[in-house]
């Protein structure tokens, strides 16, 4: 070990001197923006996006871009990467600003504008203070315009996961600001959505003011997923990854759609599992455990986010499954159990028809599986419902909801 004269560290055997498995875990953080040579298979998207934003580098108006694509297709990464390069490429005398807003977090117009103003404002240049909260939306807009005019010729604003924003006014006002004479600075917007046709579903005023080009990101294939992970293999200590780890993680991540987020999550998790087991190497079994864990996480998110009535319906199905040897139940039986739960918890009881719709929604989300069984000419068609995940796990997750906690079987 080299000793650092400025360090007072004492070697204490209680603590390990380095990590056995990871050498730079940060490379596997989802928000981490890798260097250009670690980005796989997105040259075309990068150059198309750059073309649209080219104006910004010269101090005139960039175009707006709407990026569509499923989760983990590199939308956030490519947007941040291109912004970084635009800042570096700014021509002499051109001042470019860029800002990233996560609309999942800043999901109201006021929050997003106050965040934008705070992020773009350099107090030492503008002498403007942007308070975190407390101002009206219009005051925040005024501060934003002022800080932009005081600093920049052009700005590029990323509005990530814009479909989670509870209002479209932000998009409209930002797109109109220059034309409406509110600012001298040009604004280019990169709006990102997992949901296709986001703009088509906004109102007419937004549609007409947000002039834009569209970019579609395709899922990765298993080869690209492998390469993405291999490019980050230096997150691990030398020789720690067994050969089959990356291909297997890629195969899992390619199963639903080619999702790089899932690939990297599984890889990181596999490393954590191996570490906790005290293993010397990350092996196939660790990847399998990590995959199961990722599935459970995804499932928990689905169940946690479900409306109360859907939770009651799922709870009914879990009660039946836990207390019986069968795992699939006729809708009428699940409904009887659901009624008992609602009465007990003092909840409204939905009609059988609405109840069926709820089960269908849950089937669509991949929580429940519905099978049609034909009971012959007299019996007609019946539906059988089955939980996809382990009923105990579902039950525990539902009972985490304070509104459901009073339910106790037996
Ligand atoms: N082409 C790529 N090359 C390298 N890493 C990638 C690539 N695409 C995505 N990633 C990584 O996968 C994860 C998810 O990507 P992200 O950009 O967040 O996807 P999206 O925004 O489309 O959901 C991030 O950690 C990102 O760095
Ligand atoms: Mg993203």
From TrEMBL:
Residues 314-398 form the Cdc6 C-terminal domain. InterPro entries: AAA+_ATPase, AAA_16, Cdc6_C, Cdc6_lid, ORC1/CDC6, Orc1/Cdc6_arc, P-loop_NTPase, WH-like_DNA-bd_sf. Keywords: ATP-binding, DNA replication, Nucleotide-binding. ATP binds at residues 73-77, 220, 232. It holds the Pfam family AAA_16. Residues 61-216 form the AAA+ ATPase domain. GO terms for molecular function: ATP binding. One of its GO terms (biological process) is DNA replication. Belongs to the CDC6/cdc18 family. Involved in regulation of DNA replication. This is ORC1-type DNA replication protein. It comes from Natronorubrum texcoconense.
């Amino acid at each position: 070990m080299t000793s650092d004269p400025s360090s007072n560290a004492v070697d204490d055997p209680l603590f390990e001197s380095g990590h056995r498995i990871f050498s730079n875990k940060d490379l596997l953080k989802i928000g981490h923006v890798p260097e250009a040579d670690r980005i796989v298979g997105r040259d075309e998207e990068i150059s198309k996006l750059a073309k649209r934003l080219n104006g910004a580098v010269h101090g005139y108006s960039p175009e707006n871009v709407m990026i569509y694509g499923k989760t983990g297709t590199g939308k956030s990464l490519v947007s941040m990467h291109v912004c970084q390069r635009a800042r570096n490429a700014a021509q002499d005398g051109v001042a470019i600003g860029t800002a990233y807003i996560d609309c999942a977090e800043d999901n109201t117009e006021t929050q997003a504008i106050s965040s934008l103003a705070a992020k773009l404002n350099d107090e030492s240049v503008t002498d403007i203070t942007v308070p975190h909260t407390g101002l009206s939306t219009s005051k925040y807009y005024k501060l934003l315009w002022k800080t932009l005019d005081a600093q920049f010729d052009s700005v590029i604003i990323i509005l990530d996961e814009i479909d989670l924003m509870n209002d479209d006014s932000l998009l409209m006002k930002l797109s109109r600001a220059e034309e409406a004479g509110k600012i001298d600075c040009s604004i280019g917007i990169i709006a990102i959505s997992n949901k296709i046709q986001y703009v088509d579903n906004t109102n007419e005023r937004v549609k007409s003011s947000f002039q834009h080009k569209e970019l579609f990101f395709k899922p990765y294939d298993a080869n690209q997923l492998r390469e993405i992970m291999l490019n980050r293999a230096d997150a691990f200590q030398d020789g720690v990854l067994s050969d089959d780890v990356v291909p297997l993680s890629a195969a899992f991540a390619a199963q639903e759609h080619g999702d790089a987020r899932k690939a990297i999550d599984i890889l990181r998790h596999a490393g954590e599992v191996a570490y906790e087991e005290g293993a010397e190497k990350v092996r196939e079994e660790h990847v399998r455990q990590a995959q199961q864990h990722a599935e459970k996480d995804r499932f928990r998110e689905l169940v946690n986010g479900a409306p109360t009535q859907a939770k009651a319906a799922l709870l009914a199905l879990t009660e039946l499954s836990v207390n019986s040897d069968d795992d699939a139940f006729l809708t009428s039986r699940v409904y009887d159990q659901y009624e008992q739960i609602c009465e007990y918890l003092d909840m409204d009881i939905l009609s059988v028809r609405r109840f069926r719709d709820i089960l269908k929604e849950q089937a669509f989300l991949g929580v429940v599986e519905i099978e049609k069984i034909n009971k012959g000419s007299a019996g007609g068609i019946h539906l059988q419902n089955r939980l996809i995940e382990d009923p105990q796990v579902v039950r525990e997750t539902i009972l985490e909801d304070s509104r459901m906690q009073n339910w106790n079987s037996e």
